[in-house]
Records
---
Amino acid sequence: MGNKNKLQRFAENLTFSNLFQYRYEEVVNGFSLKGKWKPEFFKNNYPLTLELGCGKGEYTVGMARNYPERNFIGVDIKGARMWRGLKTAQEEKLKNVAFVRTRIELSEYYFGEQEVDELWITFPDPQIKAVRERKRLTSPRFLQRYALFLNPDAIIHLKTDALLLYDYTREIIEQGGHLLLAANEDIYGSEIDSEVTRIQTFYEKKWLEYGTKIRYLAFKLNPEIFQKNK
């Protein structure tokens, strides 16, 4: 994508009422919707699903279409990619969709205690080098952050093409005593018929063309491990 297109998308992003992007200082000093997304922005009390690393927003928008009685928020740092999801949500007049442009490390400043009822992590960077393990979005460091805003019954979904990240996350689940709900090393070679397979991201479609296996995990956090670390 050329710089001109990026600039045009950044400019149009500013016109969308469901995009939230702030400077670091503004967020850490107190984000006004933290803990209040449902009553003040969505104007309802429906469950809230968060997608981390939402990219073009295919999952956020796709689930919003399928589940009008849920709220959905996509989080990513790439504003030019996020533009597509924002644009589609506006064109389709979807009222249960919002996007937050920020680093995932700052998510805890946007969402209050037990505010999020479900979490999707779709095709994150697997951070292959061992020295970058802490940057994996299913590392203990990140799971502890998610525990600050997840409902205790919230399900975390991971969808990835990376065997390394899949195996790593399974180990983290086991080591942390988290509750494993589903594990599948080849969802399209199985009989899964749900949003796990019905909704595909742009890059997922590309990988499928090359015959890449898509892997999936679902689990719930063990609250005791985070209480011990407080």
---
Amino acid sequence: MTKIIAITNQKGGVGKTTTAITIAHGLSLRGRNVLLVDFDPQGQCATALGINPEPCVFNLLINHQAPALWVRESGRSNLCLIPSDRTTATAQAVINAEGRSFSAVLEAVKPLMRGYDFLIFDTAPSAGGLQERAIWAADLVLIPTATEFLSSDGLTQIMSTLTQLRETRNWKGKLLGVLPTFYDEQTKESKSSFGELQNKFEKSLLAPIHRATILRECAAEGITVFEKDSASRASKEYEKLVTILLKKI
């Protein structure tokens, strides 16, 4: 069965998009067919993979045409993308104005699910209707959170959103884990933040992704860390994350 994984947080700058594209590529390198769907109006998934942002998510959600029309090749085996751009914010406004059901995102992607082992959703760093519907459609949710003081608010908010969806919208999904990002054991703030995460999320806390210049370089070059340097620490850490994900599923 196809599994949908939403990568989400209500704070930006936590490595959410980097995590989404790296996991998607990592799964594809393991022979899984993966579709990455960018629900963030910034459209950075396309840019990070070296292709152009397009209004494909808008068309997927608003135009009643064959969903496969909006799928783009990533240039990598087993990995496709439904790119986004600023029109995704317009799609959210339309969905809210029309009072679409919480199943709107799931209904939109369901015709595509037969062709893929995984759908990976990159969501916007804010609540507004579309993020919640994307989470509701997901079987699993992964929450990247930077190991810094100001990231705790975003984590608290998204955990509250998951609780609300479970209690008021009968969400059946599960938390895959909390992923500490930008970890730097040389700084007191990062170590302190990681310690707090260990205390609060002992059972669901994943191994941290260290702060790494290579990850910023990859985004600028339109390649993933597996393509730039498969022997780097960042590659090994994300490789381990992919392994854990497959084991949990």
---
Amino acid sequence: MQRLRAFVNQYPTLRKGALRLRSLAKLTKSRGDIFTEYYQNHKWFDGESHSGAGSSLAYTENARRMLPVLWERYNISRFLDAPCGDFHWFQHIELPEGFEYIGADIVAPLIEHNRANFANEQRQFMRLDICKDPLPKVDMWMSRDCWFHLREDEIFQAIRSFLKSEIPYLLTTTHFACEENRDILTGGFRLLNLEKAPFLFPHPIDTIDDWIEGYPPRRLALWKREQLLHLV
């Protein structure tokens, strides 16, 4: 296999054809299949978390410190984390008394793992496709490190899921320094600024710095449901 790849890479025409075939293969797979394959093949495993470097304890230090502050500020007692990934970093947040956490992800084996290892009276886990499934009734939905892996139309599907749910607050990742958004295939990656076209979110009501040196600057940004109704 390595010899075949080396041969293909020597010839640009063959290489472009191989890339096109990979793209077509992705188009025929569901979101669930793509991200389950990534999880099972350790595509994002960085030695600490199966959800990638952005879920390391060093990377999430500020998010872990500031999320409880945000919950108190906006009177949040029921919280949806979707996708929740492998729960590596979130398990280190001490939940307030009476607080309910729902971790959801499209990857079924990952949810089974989280249920077996982390579920308790305050934490529950469920399989969920944020682009098409009804979202549970909560006070705030956090969708961290996700939308920059989705196609533009899938992001708009997730936005519509949020607006149909009547959840008051959306907390999600945005690369505020990114000047232009581009589309990708599901499972790829690009910087994503939700205040730029085609999304044109208004200015968020609150933010949490969520990057470390060596990575593109980004924030967890908070929007009220009413701010996004024009996107329906």
---
Amino acid sequence: MKKFALVVIPFLGILVCFSSCDGQPLKSGVSTNPRSHETEGGIKWMSFEQAIASSGQNPKKIFIDIYTDWCGWCKRMDQTTFREDSVILYMNDNYYNVKLNAETRDTITFKDMQFKYAPQYKANELAVSLLNGKMGYPSYVILDEGFTMLTQPVQSYLSKDNLMPILQFFGEKIYLEKSWEQYQTEIKGPQAKE
């Protein structure tokens, strides 16, 4: 029963938080230590807490890159896709961009809930909640301005050509008018129907 509570309660809590948050700044000063290798003119990465606080003041969607220090594909994303000019420009214009180390042992406070390190997952409860317990890296989640999850977690290395349609689908609110499948068919053109 204790294991069940450790897994379900954080997950339910995050869903409640994402659907009812008012964007107030976090009470905790704990940082999730976004990687500090940002180059001049690169993606403006921030911690989860900073993104929530920023969106509370100036609403914007939040793109969360969930990574680990040992993940080779995470490092490859940083060295390739996240350095593409079009990706940098689009992400900075349309999202608050978060680097969340899934294995952080810091306690993250969000809407009076504390997300701690969960040894059975070897990850922080926030990462476990965002990924629905399916721990794979790199993973990406997008939240809307009210902190509602817009995507199921996307887990994979993504090239610019794979990432940009996802960013645009949510960034331009296409998801309000079309399904992902319809959008993919449109952007791929006639060859997608073959």
